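for the writeup, i need someone to sanity check this before i put it in the appendix. the sequnce is what the collaborator sent (i think, or maybe the updated version? ugh). structure was predicted straight from it, no edits. if anything looks off just tell me and ill rerun, i have time this weekend
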Amino acid sequence: MTTYATIPLPADLGQRLRLVQGLQTVPATLGDYVAARGRHRSVVDPSRLYCDSAQSCCGVHSEHEITMTGTPRQTHCVLDTLLLAGLEGASASVRSVSPLSGDVVRLEIGRHGVTAEPRSAVVSFGLRNDEGENVFETLCPYVNAFPSDAEYQRWAQATPQAVTVAMSVAQAWEFARDLLAPAPENGAPDGSS
């Protein structure tokens, strides 16, 4: 399996990430984005992922749900579910509904990684082309799970208001874990110049 780090970013997505995240340079790959100097610790503030007493991390009905230690929680996007599992270091079950077909993608996160049903599932990552009111409008609607890359491609073509990329579920899990790590001060993945 290829790492997420080598997935090229469309130029428009790199530019939007630089603008939204205040990066010093335009990332060319997902790996460049994760290693970027000035990148926030996460795509969004991880503190917003802590759920209220109703076990909602988003305050509204969502198509993305994570269950850890028997407690289901709804989140804004499928990346939030992966970030929660990474933050809590817990095994988890994720249920995410494709925005195109309504088909359910299920993820199982455990000690040895993540598995998906269907196995062909992919995860999108991207941003709206214009400025939104907040991250929930700019990012979240464009970070979804799909049963296949073909379905993602159809959705991406039908969603001209955003620029996105797709990655395998395993790559998305690696991406989420790396987003939770502090960005190197000098922008190099290993701390070197």
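Confidence is low (pLDDT under 50) at residues 52-56, 186-193. Strands lie at 64-68, 71-75, 92-97, 104-110, 113-117, 122-128, 145-146, 162-168.
thx in advance!!
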